Each structure stands twice: as structure tokens, then as C-alpha cells.
Amino acid sequence: MEVMNETVTLTNKDKFLSHFDLIDFSMDEDFSSDARKEAMELIQWLDFPTSKAEYWKYTRVNKIIKGNYKVSAPENEIEIDLSVPSKNCIVLINGYFSEELSFFDKTEGIEFSSLSDAKKSNSILGEKFNSLVKKDEIFADINSAYHQDGAFMHVAKNVQVEEPYYILNLVDDSNIVSNPRNFIFIEQGANAKAVLKTINTGNTGSFTNMVSEIFVEKNAQFEINKIQDEAEDSFQIATEQVVQGDDSTFKINTFTLNGAIVRNNLNIDSLGKNTMTYLNGLYPLKGKQHVDNHTYLLHREPNGESHELYKGIMGDSSTGVFNGKVFVHKEAQKTNAFQSNANIVMTDTATINSKPELEIYADDVKCSHGSTTGQLDKEALFYLRARGLSKDSARAVLVNAFASDVIEHIGVEAVKDEIEKYIDDNYHGIK
Amino acid sequence: MDKKIKGIEFLIALFRMIKIKNLHASIEGTEILRGINLEVKAGEVHAIMGPNGSGKSTLASVLAGRDEYEVTEGSVDFLDEDLLDMEPEDRSRAGLFLAFQYPVEIPGVSNINFLKTAINEAREKRGEDPMAAKDFLKRVKEKSKLVELDGRLANRSVNEGFSGGEKKRNEIFQMAMLDPKLSVLDETDSGLDIDALRIVANGVNELKTKDNASIVITHYQRLLDYIVPDYVHVLYKGKIVKTGPKELALELEEKGYEWIFKELEAVSA
Ligand SMILES: Nc1ncnc2c1ncn2[C@@H]1O[C@H](COP(=O)(O)OP(=O)(O)OP(=O)(O)O)[C@@H](O)[C@H]1O
Ligand SMILES: [Mg+2]
């Protein structure tokens, strides 16, 4: 009878958290340790969301949290051709910084390093770390509590850089759970671009729980291209917390190419006057993929402008969720906010749940939102075929055209090529 | 003796572009085409006229392979192949071209890019190399000039934001690019101003050779002043009810269709 021990009473949360028991955080800096402690405290009071929670209504996390994971820093050198079209790239493997694979080209005014390196010396990080993260979101708190490493990017005042900075998250083993944590600070008047890519070397059953804090200061410009391309049975929850200062421009392009369940939480607090914000997304789905994009944009001050464009191509038995909320505060007069979600449903078994939302408390604003869901245009398909395009090509051409206005937003040529190629490769030959 | 006849038949077959035999087609259970017979030989121009709703566009669509229509009876031989058995793209590659009555707008699809794909896929099917970019552009230039299609239109998204007349010109431009054996022009003249009509007709005439043919669907004799038909057919309730020389078009313009329907009634009575 004594064999019946306490493990029986372990909750899902306890089991999930036990994966992180073996990580040694003793070398962490004080401010970071404090953040971890605070987050661990919060986690005690929180639970994993069920479909009863409005914010998680269409995405069940059960499969994600019940995985049998491990935390593991890669021991062997891995041979991989990353072919990154940049001189600056931080590579994380299973959530740990890889010195060997990362490379840097020191540029005046730009700090680009692993988060753990930056923690040792950087004052901005000490001051602002974990300040944007919502405390009541359990996955974000788990990341705050248990992140191993991540990328740190700091662009100093008025520094302009054209070349994109790459952050590559590589999962190189099966059943890996990781909590990559990024911190990006673009100072006043600076201008930079980044690519944040999550990939997988062909393993199964991993879960990436990533959090990025992004500060775009007064009059600064920042573009980030997020490419999610992990294994087809992998899970990912990615949270971006963004703040924008006066006269700043922020653009994020999210491309979800792979993954069994992918949930994006994009939260932008546009706190300054005269800000410009672009939120774009493209999710070409297949198989049983489930992709959920939740975006929240707050216009807090006057004269802001935002453009949101998310497009889905729903194949096979995939499911998509789009929930975009734009909130215009009563002080935020002269706001222009445009929001659109368009989906092509390629099969009878694919579904999309789309909910664009505008909540406006100012009276002098220009806002619009819309959502469309339909099939590929039959007339157009016939027209192209009647001119000699094969059925496959005609479909590919139309899918390309559908995706093109999102793709046009990409300010990094290599990313543009990559996404175009992906669409070409994947929609030529579909049935 | 036998051999000689076969030789002649072969020659006839060579000149025969398309032979439509007793073609019946319906949509959603309604029979629209009710026994069409029509033969077009190389070098010929046939005009099809007829009141609204008589089935002219339906005939064009069935020939081009639109799958909403169900062919319930009859056959279509195109260059000695069973046309009805082919996919729309294979019909196009075999040399059939349909200029649509209502060309669709396709935002985001570049006019010349898709034509390039179409031409090169056809070449690939025939085991030929893709057309060199230089040659392709030369051809675009030459053919857009032929129908006086603004070079910028050729480069834009297919028909997006084109005026009615520009869409029709674009159809003839594409026809010129694809160099078909048989073109079916469905009311290419409607919506064109006098100058545009002349330009489009000119384009069609320029492209005419002794080896190709066209079927021109129109409501107006005016077009036939420019594109002179060898035969004029009247389609009525899904059947060709009268065929005559080009003068028939003049007569129809003058007298309308009523007298033909009366003639028909007299015969059936
Ligand atoms: N989906 C449909 N269901 C039922 N009837 C249809 C359908 N589509 C077309 N029709 C009918 O088929 C008939 C023939 O149409 P069609 O477009 O071929 O005429 P048309 O001769 O080209 O006329 P127009 O001169 O006006 O262009 C019309 O009566 C039309 O209403
Ligand atoms: Mg018609």
C-alpha cells in the first residue's frame, strides 16, 4: 500500500513544471533572479487556460502541456548549414545560446549578444527586463521563470542599420521544451530590422514557449520578421510585448509555416503620439495544423496610425483562429486604424474562426475592420486554365496573388525570397 | 481506289478545324444547347448572331471546357481530337482560344507573367525549351502594339481596374501572344468605341492566316464590316436555325430576328 505515493496527486501544472527542475539558475544576475522568483510565485496562483477562458477559447493547450519533455543543452557540435544572409546571427539550440554557430560583425552603436551575456553588464536590461510582460499569462510567466537564454539587441540613439539581425531558434532533439527569451531595445531615432526564426532539424514533439520584449523609442523605426517553421508535430507559443514611443514606427510580419499548434500573442502598446504600426501575418496551413493569432493594439495617444493585415490559406483539415483587437483610447483622437483578416479555405474540412474587433472611445477617428473567408475564385481559375495554365499552376498563381500584399510588406529581401519560394513550392501540385 | 479516298479524307480532315455534332449541354438541369451542328475549316471566319440568352456564350464556354456545363449529347472534333475529353488547359494548348464576353479581374496576377507561364508550359508539353526572356519581351512589345494596348496595361494585374474596352483589347493581346488555331471571340466588340473596334478588328485580321480560323459572336453587323465572315449563323434557343452568307448579317440588322422565327414556325406548322 505504501507504494501509492504523492506522484498520483501531481497536477498537470506540477508535472509540466517539473521539466525545469534540473536547470541551474544560480549564476543568474540579481534582477533576473528576482524576476524568476516573482514569476514562480505568480505561477503558483495561475492555472493553464481551458476553453472557458475567452482568450484561449479556440486553442486547447492540453496536448501542449501533457507532452513528455526534456530540457537539454546540445552536447555535440551540430553540423548545419544555416545560410543566414547576414553578418549577425544569434543561434539558440534548444533554448541555449550556441557560441559556435552564432556570429557577429561588431558595429558601432549596436549591441547584439546572448541574453545571458547582456545580463552581466547591460544597464538597460537591468532596468527594463520583464517590465512589459503580462503577469497573468501563465506561459509568459513560465518563460520569465525558466528561460535559459535568448537574444539581446540594443540599437543606440540615431544609429541606422540596413542589414537585418538574425535570431535563430533551433530545436535539435526530440521532446525538447524551451523558453527562449528575447529583449530588443531600439533607442530614439534609431532604425533597424530583425528576423526571428524558429526552426527544427527534423525531430518530433517539441514545445517552444518564446517571449520577446520589444521597445521602440521615440522616433525610432523597427521591423521584425518572424518565421515559424518548426516540425509538423511541434508546439509553439510566442508572445511579443511591444511598446512604441512618440513618432515611432513598428512593423511585425508573422509567417507561420509549420507546427501542430502555434499560438501567437502579439501585444502592442502604442503609448506615444503620432505612431505608425504595421501588423502583418500569413499562415499557409496544411494537415491538421492549428494556428491561432491573437493581436492586441492599444492606441493611447493622438494621431496614431495602424494597419493590420492577416491572411490565411487553409488547406487539408487545418484550423485557423484570428482574434485581433484594436483599442482606441478616448485621448487618442485622429487615430487611423485599419484591420483586415482574409482567408482562403481550400478544402471542406479546413476551418477558420475570425474575429476582428475595434473598441473605440475617441470620437474623431478613422477606423475600419473586416474579415473575409472564401474559396479560390473559380472564374479566375477557369480564365487562367483557358489560357493554358495547368490547374496546379493556376492555383499556385492565385495563392501567390492572395499572399502577395502581405509579402510586399517584408523589408528584408532574403525573407521575401524565402516566403515566396515557400508559397511556390507548396502550392504547386496541391489538389 | 480505297487508298485514294483515304487520302482525300485526310486532306479534308487537315482543313477541318472543328466539327460540332448535335451538341447538347445543360446547366443545373436546364438544357441550354439543344443540338448544335457547326463545322469550321481552316482559313474561315464564322459569325454567330442571335438574341440574348440564346446560348452563344454557353457554346463558347462548353468549347473552352467550363465544367459547370454538362454535355449530355453530341461530340466535338477539334483538329481530329475529342475536344470534350480534354481539360481546359489542354484545349488551349491544342490551339483553342476563347476571348471572354466578361473577362475577369485577377488582382495580384501579372498579365505578362502568367502569359509567360502559359506559353512555357505549352512549350514544355510539346518538348520544346522555354521561350528566351528576350524573345518573349519582343513578342509582348510587338503584340501589344498590334492592338494598341498601353505597355503599362500589359504589365499590370490581369484586367484589374481596366476599362471595359481595355479588357477587350487585353483579350486580343493575349490571343496574339498565344497564336491559336481557332479563336472564339465572344462579343469582343461590345463596349468598344469606334476607334477601339477598328483596332481590335484590325488585330484579328492581322492574325488571320490560311491555317487558322475564328468564330465571332456578335450582336452587331458593324463588326462584320471589319471582320468579314464567310458564314453567318443564327442561334436561337440553343440551336442554329439559319445559316447564310455575310449578307445575312445586314438583313438581320435591318429586320431583326422576328422574320426568321416566323419562317421557323411556318415550317414546323
Ligand atoms: N447557372 C445557370 N442556371 C440556369 N440557367 C442559366 C445559367 N447560366 C446561364 N443560364 C441561361 O442560359 C441561357 C443562355 O445564356 P448565354 O449566356 O449562353 O446567352 P447568350 O446567347 O450568350 O446571351 P447574350 O447575348 O446576352 O450574351 C440564358 O437563358 C441564361 O439565363
Ligand atoms: Mg453571351
Overview of the molecule:
The complex is a heterodimer of chains A (431) and B (269). Chain A has 431 residues and is an alpha/beta fold. Chain A has 2 domains: 12-272, no CATH class; 378-431, no CATH class. Chain A has 9 helices and 20 strands. Chain A has helices spanning 12-18, 30-45, 62-65, 115-121, 123-128, 138-146, 378-386, 391-407, 413-427; strands spanning 89-93, 96-97, 110-114, 151-155, 165-171, 177-178, 181-186, 191-200, 207-216, 221-229, 235-244, 249-256, 261-270, 276-285, 290-299, 305-314, 319-328, 336-345, 351-360, 366-374. A 10-stranded mixed sheet of chain A has the order 2-1-5-8-10-12-14-16-18-20, covered by helices on one side. In chain A, strands 3, 4, 6, 7, 9, 11, 13, 15, 17 and 19 form a 10-stranded mixed sheet that branches. In chain A, helix 2 packs antiparallel against helix 6 and helix 7 crosses helix 8 (391-407). The model of chain A has no long low-confidence stretch (mean pLDDT 93). In chain B, helix 5 crosses helix 7 and helix 7 packs parallel to helix 8 (194-207). Chain B has a single domain (7-268), classed as 3-Layer(aba) Sandwich (Rossmann fold), CATH 3.40.50.300. In chain B, strand 4 and strand 5 (81-82) form a beta hairpin. Helix content of chain B is 44%, strand content 27%. The longest helix of chain B has 15 residues, at 111-125. Chain B has 269 residues and is an alpha/beta fold. Chain B is globular, with a radius of gyration of 19 Å. Chain B has a 6-stranded mixed sheet with strand order 6-9-10-3-11-12, sandwiched between helices. Chain B has helices at residues 2-15, 56-64, 88-94, 111-125, 133-146, 151-155, 164-178, 194-207, 221-226, 247-255, 258-268, and strands at residues 16-27, 30-41, 45-49, 70-78, 81-82, 96-99, 106-110, 157-158, 182-186, 213-217, 231-236, 239-244. The mean pLDDT of chain B is 91. Classes of the chains: A alpha/beta (431), B alpha/beta (269). Chain A binds chain B through residues 377, 379-380, 382-391, 393-394, 397-398, 400-402, 404-405, and chain B through 64-67, 87-89, 91-93, 98, 100, 103-104, 106-109, 114-115, 117-119, 121-122, 157-158, 174, 178. The complex binds adenosine-5'-triphosphate and magnesium ion (MG). Magnesium ion is lined by residues 56-57, 101, 186-187 of chain B.
